[in-house]
């Protein structure tokens, strides 16, 4: 099983230091706990759908996960909604706990607020938040072009709204949070250039440039062809390994041949028995 990489950005570390200096470290811990529950819900749902989590990155505005494969539209709703859903469930648990043991309010109030704010903020239908992915998964089933237009309009409206709120705050008490959100949403319009450092490493340091990276996967006999297909990675040569009566290795070419002769819902054990 491939291990999930955890990355922490400099902005996230700076935020932790600022909150520590401002005597708000307990609030930071509560936010971190809410954020971990949020992201773990995304990861659990993604893995239940057959996806593999590559990286989870923490930055100043929260966290994001990167999967090895692009999420299919049919799976997008459940994966995106899993994060806010777990935060709302935690809020309900906290509220129920206060009815039973009112003294617990003192210890869980901040945790409740962090979960509520995190869930509510992520349900805003603006990229790259979960709400935008949920809306896209619903609208794309009917009309992809309309879904893109609505997403663009919502993003622009969000930028304008937070920019206006920031300008208004300048006449009283300046609120930099509004400006931060405006910049955050505006960053989605910037071109995203992916720099593949592995290519440069091979170019300058590798002597044998004919060697490919291997994506070696152990699969269970009940695994379907669709689940196996989702684990293949662009730029990698995939080899599947499973054990029936004897160890069996399936190369990428052999797997593609199986896809042409069988249904995606067939499990690998059924396919090999044919």
Gap from first CA to last CA? 27 Å
Count of DSSP strands:
6
Number of helices: 11
With strands numbered from the N-terminus, the spatial order across the biggest sheet is 1-2-3
Report on the structure:
- The chain has 274 residues and is α/β, with parallel strands linked by helices.
- It folds into two domains: 128 residues, no CATH class; 67 residues, no CATH class.
- 58% of the residues lie in helices and 13% in strands.
- It is built from eleven helices and six strands.
- The strands form two sheets. A three-stranded mixed sheet has the order 1-2-3.
- Helix 9 links the parallel strand 4 and strand 5.
- Helix 1 runs antiparallel to helix 2 and helix 6 packs antiparallel against helix 7.
- The longest helix is centred in the N-terminal third of the chain and has 28 residues.
- The relative contact order is 0.08.
- About 6% of the residues have low confidence.
Give a concise summary:
It is built from eleven helices and six strands.
Provide keyphrases for this structure.
alpha/beta, 11 helices, globular, 3-stranded mixed beta sheet, 274 residues, 2 domains
List the helices and strands and how they pair.
Blueprint: E1 5-8, H1 10-21, H2 25-48, E2 53-59, E3 62-67, H3 73-100, H4 105-122, H5 130-139, H6 144-169, H7 176-186, H8 197-205, E4 213-218, H9 225-230, E5 236-243, E6 247-250, H10 252-261, H11 268-273
């Amino acid at each position: 099983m491939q291990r999930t990489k955890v990355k922490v950005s400099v902005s996230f570390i700076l935020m932790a230091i600022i909150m520590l200096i401002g005597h708000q470290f307990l609030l930071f811990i509560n936010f971190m706990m809410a954020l971990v529950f949020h992201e773990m819900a995304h990861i659990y749902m993604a893995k239940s759908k057959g996806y593999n989590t590559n990286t989870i990155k923490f930055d100043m505005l929260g966290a994001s996960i990167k999967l090895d494969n692009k999420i299919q539209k049919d799976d997008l709703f459940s994966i995106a909604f899993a994060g806010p859903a777990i935060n709302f469930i935690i809020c309900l648990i906290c509220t129920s706990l206060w009815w039973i043991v009112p003294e617990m309010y003192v210890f869980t109030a901040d945790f409740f607020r962090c979960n509520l704010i995190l869930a509510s903020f992520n349900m805003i239908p603006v990229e790259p938040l979960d709400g935008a992915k949920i809306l896209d998964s619903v609208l794309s089933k009917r009309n992809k072009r309309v879904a893109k237009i609505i997403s663009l309009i919502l993003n622009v409206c969000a930028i304008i709204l937070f920019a206006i709120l920031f300008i208004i705050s300048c006449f009283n008490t300046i609120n930099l949070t509004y400006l931060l959100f405006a910049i955050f949403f505006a960053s989605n319009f910037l071109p995203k250039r992916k720099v593949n450092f592995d290519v440069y490493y091979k170019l300058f340091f590798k002597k044998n440039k004919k060697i490919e990276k291997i994506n070696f996967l152990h699969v269970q006999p009940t695994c379907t062809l669709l689940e196996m297909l989702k684990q293949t990675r662009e730029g990698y040569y995939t080899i599947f390994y499973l054990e029936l009566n004897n160890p069996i290795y399936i190369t990428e070419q052999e797997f593609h041949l199986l896809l042409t002769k069988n249904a995606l819902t067939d499990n690998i054990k059924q396919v090999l028995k044919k």
